[in-house]
Amino acid sequence: MRFVGIDPSTKTGFVALDQLGKVSKAKELTGINKSDSIRIITLVDEIMDHIQPGDRVFIEGFAHAAKGNYVSQMFGIGWGIRTALTRRKVPYTEVTPSQLKKFATGKGNAKKEDLILPIYQDWGFENSSDNVRDAFILAHIAYETHLLKNGFCSAVGIDIYPYRKKIINEILNSPEKKKRRKVAR
To answer: Is the pLDDT of residue 5 over 50?
Structure first.
């Protein structure tokens, strides 16, 4: 079993942790830069090439307040990844951008550069890509969720900060999306 974090973007961050929480893979994936549709298809294929049976995948949720020309690509990539995981019967858990930031820093409105020092201080991880750093945090949320949910924290000598436990509980107990009402035709 691995704990995988995916930060969907035109440069997608992908990190896999082993059963001991050690990094086994950390990379930025880009697909082939041709047309948007080819880039999205090849990027999703590249991501799925790294997914293994039994992986526990945590993926960053959509940034609904995002603006700019690339937003449609971001949603295309995000849904492409989710669709591919679903087709392969790989369950995934969504983590909001603010939950990701709060897990790393204790603050849900932290900037990308504010994550660098806590990631290094808490886990000794460095990477020049903010996408890979975000994926690392997502993978750690997956790992620590597994430890907390199964009572393994003391067995591996990890004491999870209270604010991180709160985030994990929010993720584990998040309400299902409400079913859409059928519209009369």
So the answer is: yes
The pLDDT tens digits for 55-112 are 999 999 987 666 666 677 888 999 999 999 999 999 999 999 999 999 999 998 999 9
Domains and CATH numbers, the chain: 3-172 (3.30.420.10)
Three-class secondary structure assignment of the chain: CCEEEEECCCCEEEEEECCCCCEEEEEEECCCCCCHHHHHHHHHHHHHHHCCCCCEEEEECCCCCCCCCCHHHHHHHHHHHHHHHHHCCCCEEEECHHHHHHHHHCCCCCCHHHHHHHHHHHHCCCCCCHHHHHHHHHHHHHHHHHHHHHCCHHHHCCCCCHHHHHHHHHHHCCCCCCCCCCCCC
